[in-house]
Amino acid sequence: MMGEGNYDDSPIPSSNTFIQNLNWTGSIPVVLSLATTSLSSPSSPRPIHKMISRVTYLHVALHEEVMHMSRYAPAAAGLSTAFAVRSVEEPPDSPAERDGGVEGGGNCEVSDSAAEQEESACTMQSKGFKSSHDYFDCWFEDEASGIPLRWQLFVGVLYDLMKGKAVLNSSSGRGGTHDQHILPWRIRLHFTSYPYDRLLPLDDGSPPSKVENTNDDIEGSHRRITALVGRLFRNSLKQALFMQYGSSKVAMQITKFSHEKIWDSVMTSNYAAYHEVNADLQSGISSSPISSRSTDQDDQIDQLQLIPIRLMLNDRPAIQNPVMHRKDSTDIKRRPRDLAGDLAENVSSCRTPPYTTFGDFLSNICPNHFVMDPATGQVTSVPGSCHYYCIQGVQPSMKSPLVDLWRALSHPDHFLYIIVVTE
Amino acid sequence: MSQPSCATKNDRDESIASAEDGKIYQALNDGKDAPEEPTQGKAKLEKIKVHLVSVGSAPILKKTKFLMNADDRFAVAIAFLRKMLRLSSGSSSVAANSLFLYVNAAFVPSPEERIGDLFDCFGTRGELVVHYSLQEAWG
């Protein structure tokens, strides 16, 4: 068993609440511009700079900006029938937008008058036209790589993926922070040609009557999309809770009111409100990290069935493998197949701790890039492999227990998103 | 700027999905992994037993247990069930009949989740239980 002295990482604050609070305040400077293909007015809107939170979603965070830019977009984007009344709004005479701010400082938001509401109301008469829902569905694209940004992922996760690619592509090689070249993050907004082959559609089959006040205008579209993203978040949370507790009991006990409160807190990046509701769901959140314990204290942590982890590998959808907290656990209901075998081998070598570490996870899931030295239990990169990894923008030590990382760095849906970008 | 290798798999699947397949990632249709596959290799032909259970007024199927590829995405299961129940998929949510699929009567997985992953995390007694209904049952 490794002694405490081997954990020579600088001591982390014992309060996970403190760290989570930091997570929620993390933001990324973004420059949003309208794609030329979605422009249908004589003048193009100037790009907008904004700081958006890491723990929110693009459609939620950039709502106002999308509203503003939709006035420059084709009025009947996505429709191709003769029924649609085409009208193109005039750009405002004296634009109220302010363009400014440089990276790291810019916090300029556009504040328009309420006149835009009545402008969008007279755009089309599409009663009975079935696909009017898709009317104002917008999507975002990373300017640097041209990759459509998946709306179902957190902003922080998306940014880390883009940053990983940029880091690998830059000539100075991997590692280190190259934020000054990557920030502000340039995003392009589209209203046309939704890439159905690369993004999930912005509807999930819910009947439109489920969302209140869904009108055929940009505001109604936003409400619908927000509701959709909210549903996805809620289901993600329920999945994570199921994995944590091994049954759907806790997940199903959450009241509708609590769900709404949690979603509201995510939309407004309000950690205090989130923590109020989440404390009930999260047993063991205030326990001290495993690495600083002297003995194997039997506490609520051991009730953790599986650690909810999603691995984001390049552009692939999330990989969700069952990961146990303790390697020698025999009381799990769902045994992960190969994972249990490999981990058991590591336990037998007395150099490795009895709980799953970050290095264990990486070396199991990406054996081409991370390898564990059986003699020392040390996990290192495979020589010659080119990759970038991070969690919430930081690169924790390979020796960190996964459960500590999860409690400190998980996203609001209780999942720990680990980003790995490879060449 | 060069594209990462995994992004090229979008190019491989050129075919347009038929209307019955619903709207899913084109690239996810083929369950093959990119050539430079860093993740731990699982048997590509691994099959998962999926047990479909109807809820409420949803039509009951004669055959309820199916084998699906572990590498398929959940969207494949959704499209498959739509076909079995003869629900139109349509081009928008208004035209399509709504269909909700729940895992373990608790949550709706994202269409892009891998069935194999879902089984590993949530499977019981060797099968993945999926409830389906025409209305939202469990929020």
TrEMBL record, chain A:
<feature type="domain" description="Autophagy protein ATG5 alpha-helical bundle region">
    <location>
        <begin position="231"/>
        <end position="282"/>
    </location>
</feature>
<keyword id="KW-0832">Ubl conjugation</keyword>
<protein>
    <recommendedName>
        <fullName>Autophagy protein 5</fullName>
    </recommendedName>
</protein>
<keyword id="KW-0472">Membrane</keyword>
<dbReference type="InterPro" id="IPR048939">
    <property type="entry name" value="ATG5_UblA"/>
</dbReference>
<dbReference type="InterPro" id="IPR042527">
    <property type="entry name" value="Atg5_UblA_dom_sf"/>
</dbReference>
<keyword id="KW-0072">Autophagy</keyword>
<dbReference type="InterPro" id="IPR048318">
    <property type="entry name" value="ATG5_UblB"/>
</dbReference>
<comment type="function">
    <text>Involved in autophagic vesicle formation.</text>
</comment>
<dbReference type="GO" id="GO:0006914">
    <property type="term" value="P:autophagy"/>
</dbReference>
<dbReference type="InterPro" id="IPR042526">
    <property type="entry name" value="Atg5_HR"/>
</dbReference>
<dbReference type="Pfam" id="PF20637">
    <property type="entry name" value="ATG5_HBR"/>
</dbReference>
<keyword id="KW-1017">Isopeptide bond</keyword>
<dbReference type="Pfam" id="PF20638">
    <property type="entry name" value="ATG5_UblA"/>
</dbReference>
<dbReference type="GO" id="GO:0034045">
    <property type="term" value="C:phagophore assembly site membrane"/>
</dbReference>
<feature type="domain" description="Autophagy protein ATG5 UblA">
    <location>
        <begin position="24"/>
        <end position="73"/>
    </location>
</feature>
<dbReference type="InterPro" id="IPR048940">
    <property type="entry name" value="ATG5_HBR"/>
</dbReference>
<feature type="domain" description="Autophagy protein ATG5 UblB">
    <location>
        <begin position="307"/>
        <end position="420"/>
    </location>
</feature>
<feature type="domain" description="Autophagy protein ATG5 UblA">
    <location>
        <begin position="131"/>
        <end position="191"/>
    </location>
</feature>
<feature type="region of interest" description="Disordered">
    <location>
        <begin position="88"/>
        <end position="112"/>
    </location>
</feature>
<comment type="subunit">
    <text>Conjugated with ATG12.</text>
</comment>
<comment type="similarity">
    <text>Belongs to the ATG5 family.</text>
</comment>
UniProtKB/TrEMBL annotation, chain B:
<comment type="subunit">
    <text>Forms a conjugate with ATG5.</text>
</comment>
<keyword id="KW-0833">Ubl conjugation pathway</keyword>
<feature type="region of interest" description="Disordered">
    <location>
        <begin position="1"/>
        <end position="42"/>
    </location>
</feature>
<keyword id="KW-1017">Isopeptide bond</keyword>
<dbReference type="InterPro" id="IPR029071">
    <property type="entry name" value="Ubiquitin-like_domsf"/>
</dbReference>
<dbReference type="GO" id="GO:0006914">
    <property type="term" value="P:autophagy"/>
</dbReference>
<dbReference type="InterPro" id="IPR007242">
    <property type="entry name" value="Atg12"/>
</dbReference>
<dbReference type="Pfam" id="PF04110">
    <property type="entry name" value="APG12"/>
</dbReference>
<protein>
    <recommendedName>
        <fullName>Ubiquitin-like protein ATG12</fullName>
    </recommendedName>
</protein>
<feature type="compositionally biased region" description="Basic and acidic residues">
    <location>
        <begin position="9"/>
        <end position="23"/>
    </location>
</feature>
<keyword id="KW-0072">Autophagy</keyword>
<comment type="similarity">
    <text>Belongs to the ATG12 family.</text>
</comment>
